[in-house]
Automatic annotation (TrEMBL):
This is RING-type E3 ubiquitin transferase. Gene3D superfamilies: 1.20.5.170, Classic Zinc Finger, Zinc/RING finger domain, C3HC4 (zinc finger). The lineage of its organism: Eukaryota, Metazoa, Chordata, Craniata, Vertebrata. It comes from the Eukaryota. The gene is TRIM63. Residues 325-353 are annotated as: Disordered. It is an enzyme of class 2 (transferase).
Amino acid sequence: MDYKSSLIQDGNPMENLEKQLICPICLEMFTKPVVILPCQHNLCRKCANDIFQAANPYWTSRGSSVSMSGGRFRCPTCRHEVIMDRHGVYGLQRNLLVENIIDIYKQECSSRPLQKGSHPMCKEHEDEKINIYCLTCEVPTCSMCKVFGIHKACEVAPLQSVFQGQKTELNNCISMLVAGNDRVQTIITQLEDSCRVTKENSHQVKEELSQKFDTLYAILDEKKSELLQRITQEQEEKLSFIEALIQQYQEQLDKSTKLMETAIQSLDEPGGATFLLTAKQLIKSIVEASKGCQLGKTEQGFENMDCFTLDLEYIADALRAIDFGTDEEEEEFIEEEDQEEEDSTEGKEEGHQ
């Protein structure tokens, strides 16, 4: 604590010093021993033990035969989490400086005369101090109010007894708030862990889903390449056959053209003897060429490639039906597909019979 700066800011150093020596739990001056937390805030050890026990209800108290690892609680001033070892609050370091300051302050206060304004005074009787508590009206008052004033018929009690009772009740409420805050913080931590695990699990299933779809893409690409190769092979075989026929017919055409030109030249021959020497052999060659024209032909629908058509509608339906499901649903789907294949096979066999 920065006592020097706090004292300079106030015109009454002793009053301001007293504020600096107030425990945030019991709201009174620190009771020795005073412990200092890792965050540099101070608590009465008893108050520190109260909030520690509230935050760790199953922690074994000091002196028990059962040993536990320790616990944790939050500083009531700054909410810093304080982690204890097996000694609990007894493992915290005492703040001897604060304890010495408290002793000096008490000595100074005891040597100074009591000021009139240092104790609350009754509003009805300005010269009377408030020294009793009206239980009926639940307000502090003075003795004159009880004897002659508005609280004459009320039930009263000593101020100190009521003060201790309400202070204890307030301490219990503070302990409840501290314990409640710790429980809420625990729930927040659990929810944050749940959020983190949800993100990790989502990332994992996304990766698995992407890998499965990548596998499907690879299978489709491989099958596509295979089927395209088969179409290309069939195309090449048919084109090769047709080109061979074209070559044969071209050769036949060339041969017939030469025979025709020779025959025309023979017809132009003026001499009968010369014509007759070549006419018979020429006629024989033309007849044989005519007989040889019966070359191979393509069958009707030879160029048709309908055998390579695919009906992928059922596969498209299956792809559209892809969805998240349990393993049992996947097994039922596989069994249904196997049964359909068996029924189809039996139907084909019966058709052949």
